[in-house]
Amino acid sequence: MSNYAGRTKTSVGTYVGQEGPVKTDNPIPTPKAEAPDVLRCASMELVVTDLEKSRQFYVDVLDLVVTEEDENTVYLRSMEEFIHHNLILRKGDTAAVAAFSYRVRAPEDLDKAVAFYTELGCRVERNKDGFVKGVGDSVRVEDPLGFPYEFFYEVDHVERLAWRYDLYSPGALVRLDHFNQVTPDVPRAARYMQDLGFRVTEDIQDENGTVYAAWMRRKPTVHDTAMTGGDGPRMHHVAFATHEKHNILAICDKLGSLRMSDAIERGPGRHGVSNAFYLYLRDPDGHRVEIYTQDYYTGDPDNPVVTWDVHDNQRRDWWGTPVVPSWYTDASLVLDLDGNVKEVVARTDDSEMAVTIGADGFSYTRAEEGEDSMPEYKKGEYKLGNQL
Amino acid sequence: MSNYAGRTKTSVGTYVGQEGPVKTDNPIPTPKAEAPDVLRCASMELVVTDLEKSRQFYVDVLDLVVTEEDENTVYLRSMEEFIHHNLILRKGDTAAVAAFSYRVRAPEDLDKAVAFYTELGCRVERNKDGFVKGVGDSVRVEDPLGFPYEFFYEVDHVERLAWRYDLYSPGALVRLDHFNQVTPDVPRAARYMQDLGFRVTEDIQDENGTVYAAWMRRKPTVHDTAMTGGDGPRMHHVAFATHEKHNILAICDKLGSLRMSDAIERGPGRHGVSNAFYLYLRDPDGHRVEIYTQDYYTGDPDNPVVTWDVHDNQRRDWWGTPVVPSWYTDASLVLDLDGNVKEVVARTDDSEMAVTIGADGFSYTRAEEGEDSMPEYKKGEYKLGNQL
Amino acid sequence: MSNYAGRTKTSVGTYVGQEGPVKTDNPIPTPKAEAPDVLRCASMELVVTDLEKSRQFYVDVLDLVVTEEDENTVYLRSMEEFIHHNLILRKGDTAAVAAFSYRVRAPEDLDKAVAFYTELGCRVERNKDGFVKGVGDSVRVEDPLGFPYEFFYEVDHVERLAWRYDLYSPGALVRLDHFNQVTPDVPRAARYMQDLGFRVTEDIQDENGTVYAAWMRRKPTVHDTAMTGGDGPRMHHVAFATHEKHNILAICDKLGSLRMSDAIERGPGRHGVSNAFYLYLRDPDGHRVEIYTQDYYTGDPDNPVVTWDVHDNQRRDWWGTPVVPSWYTDASLVLDLDGNVKEVVARTDDSEMAVTIGADGFSYTRAEEGEDSMPEYKKGEYKLGNQL
Amino acid sequence: MSNYAGRTKTSVGTYVGQEGPVKTDNPIPTPKAEAPDVLRCASMELVVTDLEKSRQFYVDVLDLVVTEEDENTVYLRSMEEFIHHNLILRKGDTAAVAAFSYRVRAPEDLDKAVAFYTELGCRVERNKDGFVKGVGDSVRVEDPLGFPYEFFYEVDHVERLAWRYDLYSPGALVRLDHFNQVTPDVPRAARYMQDLGFRVTEDIQDENGTVYAAWMRRKPTVHDTAMTGGDGPRMHHVAFATHEKHNILAICDKLGSLRMSDAIERGPGRHGVSNAFYLYLRDPDGHRVEIYTQDYYTGDPDNPVVTWDVHDNQRRDWWGTPVVPSWYTDASLVLDLDGNVKEVVARTDDSEMAVTIGADGFSYTRAEEGEDSMPEYKKGEYKLGNQL
């Protein structure tokens, strides 16, 4: 992550180069302790205010599989998952995220997690019996960015339902794909995530080197989590994968039939960043869920990092479809380890919305033509002017 | 086409009933002459101002097949077509539509067309050698609504390339599906089209019986043409079909790669009306092209007519995606038989845009909740207020 | 339908030409009475020996919609249908077909059907109240080929579930597409169907003019029924359409999950004839059901008739996948109007199986290379030799 | 890999358990030297006898991208690849495989590869300039099973064409997915691959513990290579991935249009093992190429190993489609480091073909019903009897 210097311009207008240490004026110190070996994003714990309504959304509409449930909690998984859950719905008074949970490679990585975050001065809790059902020995921390991160290795195995096509719905969700977090200072966040062993795959910058978002991975996809610049700590979205694009369209069709089309916030569309096909939904509490398919393999150590110009109108949607303002502004609160809402700190860097569709911002379809290459017929949407 | 009286409400909130004579205060008299037996919409002749640029759009981007071409004209067809062409690009000074061309069942139907339109007092021209290459004996008229309609039977056969998968691109267009025309008085237009032998399949009305649009067919699909209320006569769009939904997504993807995403005006999405999957593009002259797939069989004489409430936010897009204002306001001019632009007459009935997203209009996702069921995060788009 | 004389060879090796009267040495006399105006194949009545098992197959596995049922009968329809049913399962002792049911354009067409078949000397029954639930005034005949044909216009309307995506399964069947009948003398059968108003769209012949099969339509698809040469009268299959190819694959996947993969007889694959994507299943009684998608528009009167060489190995499967022998040999019995099984008469013309994969038969992938162009690795399957 | 003891039977009839050391009577000694850290299968070098014909197959038909070529060699890559090539076609007298090439994590891994294979007593060659264009420092070995393995880290980067949808064909190949090798003793081979750091994901066994095939991975998919029991060392196939299933169908359609359907050996179908959708082609030299899509994530260390019963007819094809005998018997020769063909050693364990479809073998669709649950209509294919 850096500005465009030393980068190669591709035939589609992006810049590729090799990952280096992220430049930041305000770094979180790199711990001497070794980072835990994170395998993948594994689960999110969501606090929901109306459990029945949320269950209906995730189970009856999105067809996630119930592994286990009681009156306060529903444990859900995707069709190809073999661990106990990928999503927990827990009843509570305030809609928020209680944990971003990562699986680590071995039990010993929990000790590393404790050491790593303790050295960072973070609050660290360890529970040999797990904080939730289905999971054993676990570590929860309030990380330097204010997010409740969980790490675990021990977990109950359940049947991987990949071959149970009699249970698939037209929009079947097959994997948890990634998290997306909102944080005020993206380079600071990305640098810390590098220390935690994550690799940057793509980012969005401007010509001054301001970084608006960065995508980072452990498993060899485009991301296990992304850092989106904004007031934070907040959770931007949690994403599940389908096999094919028509599965995502089927979810939209079904929402229409259920007269729940207002749950569709943005998309479906093709991302520029990640090259994946996407859809953003809002659950009954407003938690944002992405449905996502077909990004690319990123597992080589020299995997080219792709940098997108913030003014490139195809960065967020390859087809140039406008991003709705709420997608930039709304996000879910997160909880500290006592279950209290973390205070949100404002972003001071430029906002992506302001520099692209705000009164003084601009975007282009073709860089050489500048803002003149924005579609006339979408101008209202592309130029918010004084509206916001 | 009528208001909701005598209609059955369906489980998805539409109304179905049987087609009757369209009620209009200002009917075009029904000719005593028998109408020609129209088979299907067959071709559109477009005047384009930069032939090379338009050829690039339709041939290099959309992969239509060139049957024949010269320096002023390009004759194009879709992959499954066996007649000479479905689209003609003709070089001219003013972008416009020169002909909406229908194929009739037999040579005798041309005599019927002459008698039908002569009785209507229309200008009628017949050319035994055809007005364009590939087509023989033809009749062109300026119809009562001001549109240049063509009727023909004789046509050169060319190879149907349906089995030439080596020539298919990811977004292959396989059939011309329909036209869409803008006209100020929809019931007047629909009643005349019924006289011409067309059947209504769906329409959009409000509770006062104002009709905003009507879909009409000869072949047993949802339409061969539709009448959209607005200032006219103008051409709203011409539509080509693909086999599957992913073909339409592939066209978007390709436009992104070519940095032509500004050609995408609306969609892709799922229509409420017609239940088809759709995309709207604008060609280099602004002519609107729809890509369309998967409507339903309508060939039974008692095929239920579906009426949509104009305030139902899922009527135009089943997923509730806002319709961009340009889609309501922009359309192509049409030519008279001398090649002069037809004067455009303003609509006096309510405009769909005004009653749905205008300052005093409203839309809903769930009828019983009214406007409160419109997604908060799309409000800017859904409520244009004083913007327009 | 004729031999190749006067036909044009296409770039993919088929022959196209115009439909003429079918040549036959043994014609059924053309009635002077006008034929009824058939709209489309509308329903099949199947006798099944274990109603519960059959219901499970068509409802739980194939997800057809139950319109109505009682202890002896289940009335089923597809997702886009608005008439009462497309398939009737009726409990009985012998698995057979009780009716191939066509919808006609108007009530008067029933009088025409009576006159047409009476003149042909056929047994004709009319029931003002219908022979089955949901259908009114109907005519049933034992047609000249021995098949139980039904004609009706009056029918109960039910909700077209096209927009009910919450009810769609991954393999949703959206339309009844066609029937396929086995009869010993194909030209004789096809000529009679022409008299009934059907048009030939494709056929399979050899260089001697022997006709192995013919496809015929009323609605503008490749067929409402096809005549397949073999011992008859028997029912070869009934076909339902899906929207897309992946829907057909989903049915296979589901059958695998239910450990019912033995219900898959042939396919999935791409037909040469019709260009459609297909799958053949066998229901619990062995009745063959095709799942079918994406043939082409055939509604023009001069629609080119496609003739395939019986030795062209891509005629039945465009990918050259061998046809399993049972597909050639097995078919369902049909009933007369008293419910007795019709006697089966042997075909005397060459059998398609014998001339293509039998001991003395041959097939080719490339005509100019002859049998040498058959894949070595499939030889066992392609050359049955003395096996059968 | 073991027999079913200690394994859990799943709801679809497979057995899952944890990977353990593979039991073998005839192990290759585990080296004390550390194994190189293999990232992924990266490229195969194929010797082809008619370069022009092979180029036509891989470039014009399969649409792989030419990175570089000269009169003797063509370097090809898939749409999402950023390294120089995934497939090399090299002109030669004998069709064979010259290298199975793996990318390693770091330059130091080449030293480890040298030590590892030297300790195993294998012939090892290192070339600082690479053995082929685009690749730097490389190690080639004749491995203990007789296969020519290559390891490299240094490689030229080329543009990842993932976003170049203008270059995608309907059947676009996006990634190299895996190799498949034929070797007489599968447990011996699998044990050695475990030593090389590979993990077993699935296997096929019988009730006696005979192992017929095993799938092994480094990247977290079902495999980077598989070991198939048979006369070896030979190369069974090399596999490329598409995004979706329809892409694979499009390849079949295109081969039909080119009158090259004889290149289709088996499929398309759904694998039981891997759950992927597949197609097997044979190139002009008979080298087998699989097209493959949608297996599942396997990256957790306790990823459940799936064991299939060799008699389960859905193991190789979930839909029960018979495997053609050539698929079991044919494979490509491999070369030693001097370019000479490696001698092929016969398998002495039971052959999968013999125990499943041979005279004394058997398969089932439903275990509890045994061979009676095999489809009657496919019996000819399922029971080869004395034919082979």
TrEMBL record, chains A, B, C, D:
Record's keyword annotation contains Oxidoreductase: yes
UniProt keywords, alphabetically: Aromatic hydrocarbons catabolism, Dioxygenase, Iron, Metal-binding, Oxidoreductase
Region annotation Disordered: where it falls in the sequence: 1-31, 368-388
Domain VOC: 40-154, 175-294
Co-factor(s): Fe(2+)
Domain of life: Bacteria
PROSITE patterns the UniProt entry points to: EXTRADIOL_DIOXYGENAS, VOC
Keyword Transmembrane applies: no
Family: Belongs to the extradiol ring-cleavage dioxygenase family.
Protein name: 3,4-dihydroxyphenylacetate 2,3-dioxygenase
Comp. bias (Polar residues): 1-13
NCBIfam families: HpaD (TIGR02295)
GO molecular function annotation: dioxygenase activity; ferrous iron binding
